[in-house]
UniProtKB/TrEMBL annotation:
Record carries keyword Repeat: yes
Protein name per the record: Anaphase-promoting complex subunit 4 WD40 domain-containing protein
Keyword Lyase part of the UniProt annotation: no
PANTHER family: F-BOX AND WD REPEAT DOMAIN CONTAINING 7 (PTHR19848:SF8), WD40 REPEAT PROTEIN (PTHR19848)
Superkingdom of the source species: Bacteria
Assigned keywords, A-Z: Repeat, WD repeat
Pfam families: Pentapeptide (PF00805), WD40 (PF00400)
WD repeat residue numbers: 409-449, 585-626, 633-667
Lineage of producing organism: Bacteria, Bacillati, Cyanobacteriota, Cyanophyceae, Nostocales
SMART domains linked to this entry: WD40 (SM00320)
C-alpha cells in the first residue's frame, strides 16, 4: 500500500510539473513516463508526447488536438471524448484503449496498433490509418468517411452502422469483419479480402470491389457495386496437383523443371514426372542412429542421446546411393560426466569415434554403419557388459576377474549401441536405435524398457544441377539430435524396486540452405559451426559461425557467395570467400521466420512475427521497403524470371507481390493450416506450397497472367 501511495505521489508530481511547464509555453515532453497518470479534461493542445509512456493513463475529455503522440504507449488508456483532431499518432500503441466518442478527424495513425480498442461513435473523418492494426476493434456507429484504411487488418472487427462513405480500404484484410448496415457508398475496396465478412444491410452503392475477395461474404448485396478485374491484376492461380501423403516442408523441383521430389509420411522420397504428373520412383531413406546412454553420478537419472549426421547423393531414377558425405565435428555420440560427476557433456569425433565409459578408459571404435560394438565396466570392478552388432541385440555380462560369461541379457529390437552401469553397480542401462532398457544385475531381470520414436525426424531434399538431363542428382541431408533424461527412484529401502518417471530433454534439427545454382549447400545444427559443401565435388568447404545468437535460419545467394543468417531480430550477411561479416540488417521488431535472396542477389526479402515483409538492398546494406501483412510470414520464395515474390502465411494464405511496384498483386487461400514452405519451378509456371508440421498436404499451383 505504501509503495502504491509513493507511486501515485510520483505520478501526481510528474503531472504537476508537466502542467507548470506547459503553461509556461513548453511543448516538448517526449519519452515522459506518465503511466496511470490522470490527465482528464486538460487542455494540452499541440503538446509533444512522442514515445511517452501513457499506459493506463486517464485522458477523458482531454484536448490533444494537433499534438504529437507518435510512438507513444497508450495501451489501455482511457481517451473517451478526447479531442485528438489532426494529432500525430503514427505507430502509437493504442491496444485495448478506450476511444468511444473521441474526435480524431484528420488525425494520422499510420501503422498504429489499435488491436481490440473500444471505439464506438469515434470521429475519424479524413483520418489516415494506413497499415494500422484494427483486429477485433469495436467501431459501431463510427464515422470513417473519407478515411484512409489501406492495407489495414480489420479481422473480426465490429463496424456495424458505421459511415464509410468514400473511405479507402484498398487491400484491407476484412476477414469475418462485421459490417452490417454500414454505409460503404463510393468506398474503394480494391483487392480487399472480405472472406466471411458480414454485409447484410450494408450499402454498397458504387463501392469499388474490383479484385476483392467477396464470394464468401455473408448477405452481400453487390448489385450496385463496381465489379470486375483490375487492369493491373496480373496473376491468376489454379490447383495443378495435390499430394495428400506429403510432408509440407520437404520438397524440391529439379533444375530442368521435369521432376518434383517430396518426402512422404512413410519415410520415402517420391519422385514425380511433372509432364505426366505420374510417380516414377520411391527411395527408402535408411536411418543409422548413433546413440548413447549413461547414469548420472547419483544413479537417479538416465541420460541418452540420438544423433544422425548424413549428407547423401542419390540417383532419382534408380534410387541408388551415389555417395555419402559425413561431417562429424558435432557428433552427439557419447555422454560424459565431468570429474565432479555433476556436469554432463556430449562428445564425438566421427569415424572412428571415441566412446567414453564413465569413470573408465576411452576406446576408439569403428563400425558407424553396422552398429557400435560397446562395453562398460561396473564401478565396483566386478563386471564387464558388452555387445556387438552381430549378437541380435544381446548383452553379455562378464565376470571381470575370471573373464567368464555370467549371463546374457536378451530382448533389444536392434543392435545395442551403448551401455552404462549405475554408480552402485546394481543396474545396467542399455540403448539401441529402437529401444532403451534397464536391467537389474542381481536378479538378471529387465526392470524397465521403452521404444524410441523418431516421428519428428525428416530429411532435407534438393536436386543438384547437371548438364545431363538423364543424370539428375537428388541430395538428402539427415541431421537430427535428441537428448533426454529419465528419473530413477528406489521405491524400497533396499532398492529392489525402481520407479522410472519423467521424460525431459531437448531435440534439435539443423536448418538447410542451398544456392539457386544448386552447387553449394549450407547446414547448421544447434550452436555448432555452419557446414558448407560443394555439391559438385562433394568437398566440405571451410567456414564457421560459432556465435550461438546466429540461429538455424539461413539463406544462400544464387551462386553461394553470400550467406544470410538470422541474428536475434537482425539478419547478418557473410562473405563466404573472405569469411568476413559484411553487415547486420536491422529493422524487424520481432522473430524473423523467413529470408530469401532474389535471383540476381540484389534484394534480400525477410518476414516474420512483426507482420512485416521487408526488402533489403544487398549491395548498399539498407532497407528498400517495408510491406505490412495481416498474418505472420512463415516462408518466402522469389520467382526465377520475374520481379515477383511469394509469401506464405500463418493462416494458410499465399500472397504474390510485384517487387517493381512494391505492392501485392494477388492473394489466395492455399491451405487450411499454416504454410511453411514455398518453391517456384525453374520456369516460374508452378508454385509448390506445403503445410506445416501438423499438415500432410503439398500442392502445386499453376500461375499465369490474365
Amino acid at each position: 500500500m505504501l509503495e502504491n501511495n509513493l507511486n501515485n505521489s510520483i505520478i501526481t508530481e510528474s503531472v504537476k510539473n508537466l502542467l507548470e511547464a506547459y503553461q509556461c509555453g513548453k511543448r516538448e515532453f517526449a519519452q515522459l513516463n506518465l503511466e496511470n497518470a490522470d490527465l482528464s479534461q486538460l487542455d494540452l493542445s499541440g503538446i509533444n508526447l512522442s514515445n511517452a509512456n501513457l499506459r493506463k493513463a486517464k485522458l477523458v475529455g482531454t484536448k490533444l488536438n494537433n499534438g504529437n503522440l507518435s510512438g507513444a504507449n497508450l495501451e489501455r488508456a482511457d481517451l473517451q471524448c478526447a479531442d485528438l483532431r489532426q494529432a500525430n499518432l503514427n505507430e502509437a500503441n493504442l491496444k485495448k484503449a478506450k476511444l468511444d466518442a473521441a474526435n480524431l478527424n484528420a488525425a494520422t495513425l499510420i501503422k498504429s496498433n489499435l488491436y481490440s480498442a473500444y471505439m464506438p461513435r469515434i470521429q475519424l473523418f479524413q483520418a489516415n490509418l494506413q497499415e494500422a492494426k484494427l483486429g477485433d476493434v469495436e467501431l459501431t456507429a463510427a464515422n470513417l468517411e473519407e478515411c484512409i484504411l489501406d492495407k489495414v487488418s480489420l479481422s473480426g472487427a465490429r463496424v456495424r452502422k458505421a459511415n464509410l462513405k468514400k473511405a479507402s480500404l484498398k487491400q484491407a484484410y476484412l476477414y469475418e469483419c462485421k459490417l452490417q448496415f454500414s454505409d460503404l457508398t463510393g468506398a474503394n475496396l480494391q483487392k480487399a479480402d472480405l472472406t466471411k465478412a458480414e454485409l447484410d444491410g450494408a450499402n454498397l452503392t458504387q463501392t469499388d470491389l474490383r479484385g476483392a475477395e467477396i464470394d464468401d461474404a455473408k448477405q452481400a448485396n453487390i448489385e450496385l457495386a463496381i465489379l470486375g478485374k483490375l487492369d493491373n491484376q496480373i496473376i491468376e492461380h489454379s490447383l495443378h496437383i495435390e499430394f495428400k501423403d506429403g510432408l509440407g516442408k520437404y520438397f524440391t523441383f529439379s533444375q530442368d523443371g521435369n521432376l518434383f521430389a517430396y518426402y512422404n509420411n512413410y519415410r520415402k522420397i517420391v519422385i514425380i514426372d511433372l509432364h505426366s504428373s505420374q510417380e516414377i520412383n520411391k527411395i527408402n531413406i535408411p536411418r543409422e542412429a548413433v546413440v548413447s546412454v549413461a547414469f548420472s553420478s547419483n544413479g537417479q537419472t538416465i541420460y541418452h542421446s540420438f544423433y544422425v549426421n548424413e549428407l547423401k547423393l542419390w540417383n532419382p531414377f534408380t534410387g541408388d546411393l551415389i555417395s555419402n558425405l559425413k561431417h562429424h565435428s558435432a557428433n552427439f555420440t557419447s555422454l560424459v560426466f565431468d570429474s565432479n560427476g555433476k556436469g554432463v557433456g556430449v562428445v564425438g569425433t566421427g569415424e572412428p569415434f571415441e566412446l567414453h565409459d564413465i569413470g573408465h578408459e576411452t576406446r576408439t571404435l569403428k563400425g558407424y554403419s553396422s552398429g557400435i560394438q560397446t562395453q562398460a565396466y561396473s564401478p565396483n570392478g566386478c563386471f564387464i557388459a558388452r555387445s556387438a552388432p552381430d549378437t541380435n541385440g544381446q548383452i553379455e555380462l562378464i565376470d571381470k576377474q575370471t573373464g567368464n560369461k555370467i549371463y546374457i541379457f536378451d530382448g533389444h529390437k536392434a543392435a545395442v549401441q551403448s551401455l552404462s552401469f549405475s554408480p552402485d553397480s546394481k543396474l545396467l542401462a542399455s540403448k539401441s536405435a529402437e529401444d532403451t532398457k534397464v536391467w537389474q544385475i542381481e536378479t538378471r531381470k529387465e526392470i524397465y524398457g521403452y521404444l524410441q520414436s523418431f516421428t519428428s525426424y525428416y530429411p532435407y531434399v534438393a536436386f543438384t544441377d547437371t548438364d545431363n538431363k538423364s543424370h539428375q542428382i537428388l541430395v538428402t541431408s539427415d541431421f537430427c539430435g535428441n537428448f533426454e533424461r529419465k528419473n530413477v527412484n528406489s521405491s524400497r529401502k533396499n532398492g529392489s524396486d525402481y520407479n522410472f518417471s519423467g521424460d525431459g530433454g531437448y531435440s534439435c534439427e539443423a536448418h538447410i540452405a542451398i544456392s539457386a545454382d544448386r552447387k553449394v549447400l549450407a547446414r547448421r545444427f544447434d550452436e555448432q559451426a555452419v557446414q558448407l559443401w560443394n555439391l559438385e565435388t562433394g568437398q566440405e568447404l571451410s567456414f564457421s559461425i560459432l556465435d550461438s545468437r546466429y540461429s538455424y535460419l539461413m539463406a544462400l545467394s544464387s551462386q553461394g557467395k553470400i550467406l544470410a543468417a538470422r541474428y536475434n531480430q537482425e539478419i547478418a550477411l557473410w562473405n563466404l570467400h573472405t569469411k568476413n561479416l559484411i553487415c547486420n540488417l536491422t529493422g524487424h521488431t520481432d522473430y524473423i521466420k523467413a529470408i530469401a535472396f532474389s535471383p540476381d542477389d540484389k534484394i534480400l526479402a525477410s518476414g516474420g512475427w512483426d507482420l512485416t515483409l521487408r526488402l533489403w538492398n544487398v549491395q548498399e546494406h539498407n532497407e528498400i521497403q517495408t510491406l505490412s501483412v495481416p498474418e505472420i510470414v512463415l516462408t518466402l520464395a522469389f520467382h526465377p524470371k520475374e520481379a515477383i515474390l511469394a509469401s506464405g502465411h500463418h493462416d494458410g494464405t499465399i500472397k504474390i507481390w510485384d517487387i517493381n511496384k512494391m505492392e501485392e498483386v494477388h492473394s489466395f487461400k492455399a491451405h487450411q493450416q499454416e504454410i511453411e514452405a514455398l518453391a517456384f519451378s525453374p520456369d516460374g509456371k508452378l508454385l509448390a506450397s506445403g503445410e506445416g508440421n501438423r499438415g500432410s498436404i503439398i500442392r502445386l499451383w499453376k500461375l499465369k497472367r490474365n
